[in-house]
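ERR on first pass: missing label on line 2. Operator R.T. fixed the label and resubmitted. Corrected input:
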Amino acid sequence: MMESLFYIAALVALVATVAALTRSNAAHALIYLIVSLLAVAVLFFLMGAPFAAALEILIYAGAIMVLFVFVIMMLNLGETGDIRERQWLRPRNWIVPGVMAALLLLELLLALRHAPTLTSGVAVAPKDVGLALFGPYVLAVEIASMLLLAGLVGAYHLGRRFIVRREGRSN
Amino acid sequence: MTTLWLIPLFPLLSATLLVLSAGRMPRQLAALLGAGSVGLSAICVALVARTYLADGQVQELTLWTWMAVDNFTPRIAFYIDGLTVVMMSVITGVGFLIHLYSIEFLWDDESFCRYFAYMNLFVAAMLLLVMADNLLLLYLGWEGVGACSYLLVGFWYRDPDNGAAARKAFVVTRVGDTAMFLGLLLLYTELGTLDIQPLMAAANSQWQVGDTLPILATALLLGGAVGKSAQLPLHTWLPDAMAGPTPVSALIHAATMVTAGVYLIARNYELFLLAPPTLAAVAWIGLATLLLAGFTALAQHDIKRILAYSTISQIGYMFLALGVGAFASGIFHLMTHAFFKALLFLAAGAVIHCLHHEHNIFRMGGLRRRLPVVFWSFLIGSAALAALPFTSGFYSKDAILLSAWTLPGIGPWLWAGGLLGALLTGIYSFRLVFIVFFGEAHTEPDQQPGWRMSGALIVLCVLSLVGGWFALPLAGVLPDKDHAHVSHAVEFISIGTPLLGLLIAYLLFLGRQVSIASLAESPWGKALQDFWYSGWRIDKLYDALLVQPFKCLAHWWRNEPVDLFYNALVALSRWAHGRLITLQTGELRWYATSLVFGLVLLLAIMLRNAS
Amino acid sequence: MGGLQIPLEHVLLLAATLFSCGLMGLMLRRNIIFMLMSLEVMLNAAALAFVAAGARWQQADGQIIFLLILSVAAAEVAVGLGLVLQIQRRFKTLDMDQVNRLRG
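pass 2 clean. output:
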């Protein structure tokens, strides 16, 4: 029963991802992507990683995707964007990316052929994660905070200039 | 003793003052400084010579150590023996007369000060050359006179031809100087000193007669002597060096500097005695040079070029003397030659001066009555040059010829060659006299030489006549050949040959008994005359052998063949850049695809290795 | 609380497939927003592989790496979307084939 739940969620994730990447409307694609992320969160939970699953939903599907939504709303692409996207997705354009991706997948499969093993089935509690995080990995936490700070500053900088120029007070 | 250091100091000081004045010094003062400093030196030399003649003691004076590098400590030191006394006397004595003459000759020249600065510097360097106690100091003087020669040949530098002549003189002598410097290095490496007297002692104790090393060392020194003294094959610069003012030709290119090579060999005669092959080479070079120059002098038009070739020829006699071992005779001829050749040059200068810078002898003529002082000077000079009996040249040349005769083996051949040279000398010197001073006048002199010119000429006339009676203080300093027992027939031939030359010249150029024109017009005569006029085409030969290939090479190098490789590298990287740049499309998807392609490839390789 | 015992291969297979899909999207799409989405998919696929490995060995490390990937993704999206806005303003298009001013 639970195993079938896993495979259903995996199927959902795969289908939603493919759909997300082939839609011509950005908003629709984003919804599919969120579905995909939620399905992956289910997988995390089923594999015994409840903390990761929670973060996947909160931050990935929540915060990051909301950012996308905001940007798409700001750009306001509309109907013309959809038509143009559809023109770009003609079958001819699929050949090279399709072949490349298929080759890579094939190679990954070949590499994963060995080691048929099962997951432990024992959950790793958030407490353990927290202990490891602020124990041996405290430096990684610091680095991650630095990275986020850099992202914050970069995003602020890029966004600020955008707004300033929009108002025509510069250049 | 203590006055020794004053001898080169006076001209050096005067040269410095004249240079520092930058040409703004009044002419009277410059003339006084220029000639006076050499005169003072001459007085000092006279004092030194009197001391030496009185006691025969070698005088030495060390001023200071020039430099000290490990064991190599050349000093600024003077060594005065009989040879040096003779050389110093010639340099300062003849030099003073020529300076005196120059005052009048160059009075109207705008570079009067510069002229005397160079001349004084030359005298100082030449004195340093002959007084030096070691070969390095000698080399300093050697290069100093070379530099002054360059400066003075190119004195009238506004004419590019004069600059070219100066460069030629400098470069050709540089070839010999390089050989000489190598010789010095070899001597220092092998014997560990460059001080002349210890060097001779060391050479005598370490080397045997006929060893390879002394032959090599003397051959290299001979290279320097050949270059400086304008002997075959490095003689080509001297005729062109006549581009300088005539007193310069008299002092540098006749009386003193060109005889430095003779001095060098005489000074190192002990070394040369250890190398008989080199000595033989000296004799043959001298003979070949004197004959070649003699024939060439027969066909020249320019009065100074004739004298230049005769100088080459006479230095050939000196080399011949050195080569047969008659060192003292060589130096004797050096001295008498300095007198009569300076006289001839100064007389020629007077002719040129009085005839608006006319050099071509065929546009002169009939000057006997118009310039009597010059005529008599020239006549006496020519007589001495041709070695007519009882002139100074007669004694010295006779000594050389007899010394050659007494040499066993090749001696008679050298003697015969020298005799032919003497005949030629008689012909060309009196050809000059007859053409310039007899016959019809083509150009009228517009002035007479003044008292300075005439005075210098008269003094030199006297010296040319009586110079043969001087007993040089060379006994014990230089070896000489004993030729007291030569048969009278040989002596008579030696005496008679110049007279025969005079007779031939008279017949050809004055008596009109034999038409020189018909001789010169015949095909053979014309070809021969052209051949001799061009100096046996040696300049052309060198041009074809050395200058043209060098120019070719230079032209070739101008295209920078070495850079071809680097240019090819540049072209290759440019080309590769042009190809690679097409990969830089600026398209994000293209980059992503390339990235994936590389990833696929890498994974494929890894999988292949893993399996 | 326990988890499921699932063949690790299957999870990794899913992760590889998701990654390939993301890669294909990256190469296929010309719109910069879709490219960023493809990147998210790829990051997510990598994260899945890490979490699966953590579950296999019953270690917290997998989830910690997931956390790090999460922060990278967050930073990337923040800067990337800022760039998207700039690109739209300057080039009046989101077509990355036209934004090729860096070509050699």
